[in-house]
Write a structure and sequence with these properties.
about 0% strand; mainly alpha; 10 helices
Length: about 210
């Protein structure tokens, strides 16, 4: 009987301890969920503020004719710590790259695209930047870089990489890389010409008869 009483008491103690652990665990989950909600709310607030300021910035830049003044105004926006990591900042860098490209400042435009990618959140914004980067590199004849950007785009958003506006670029890169099999699949009406070129051109995987 003593053993039975002790065993029952021990079971009650273990049950109470287990109940306490469950309560603690639930409170931990509640606190963590609250912290995540607050962080999400803070990010959203920062995004809204940055987006509002970015729109005001673009309106101000449209009224400025001096490129130096435009760059100074943009730099003040881009260097604001509160804007770091927001989609608005990534989009602002993307628009800055367009302005630089229009001036013929191609190296600076590529740097701006790199910053746009760095600031982009995962997903659509990264895909948007990579598509623009690939197109820009292709315009400059830097097909290796354009191909790398396309492959990165395919890895994160295959549907965007396959859209019609990028098809000519896909073909251009495939030809530059002497990937005639892929080029043939992309060539459409020009497929017979690509296939003839493929048969006549030795590559690492194909040798003409």
């Amino acid at each position: 009987r003593r053993v039975t009483a002790w065993a029952r008491r021990r079971q009650r103690e273990l049950a109470a301890a287990a109940g306490s652990l469950v309560v603690v665990g639930v409170w931990v989950l509640i606190v963590q969920a609250g912290q995540l909600a607050l962080e999400a709310l803070e990010r959203r607030g920062r995004e809204v503020v940055a987006q509002t300021r970015a729109e005001a910035l673009e309106r101000a830049l449209a009224e400025l004719e001096d490129p130096a003044e435009q760059d100074a105004r943009f730099a003040a926006f881009a260097e604001e710590p509160e804007h770091a990591g927001t989609r608005a900042l990534s989009q602002a860098w993307l628009q800055h790259a367009e302005r630089l490209g229009a001036r013929g400042a191609e190296a600076e435009a590529l740097d701006a695209l790199a910053r746009a990618y760095f600031e982009a959140d995962e997903g659509p914004q990264q895909a948007l930047v990579l598509a623009e980067l690939a197109l820009r590199l292709n315009e400059l004849g830097r097909w290796a870089g354009a191909g790398s950007a396309l492959r990165s785009l395919e890895a994160i958003d295959p549907s965007r990489a396959a859209e019609p506006d990028l098809r000519p670029l896909q073909l251009q890169v495939a030809l530059a890389e002497r990937d005639f099999e892929r080029a043939s699949s992309l060539a459409g009406a020009a497929r017979p010409l690509i296939q003839a070129l493929w048969r006549a051109t030795p590559t690492a995987h194909h040798h003409p008869n």
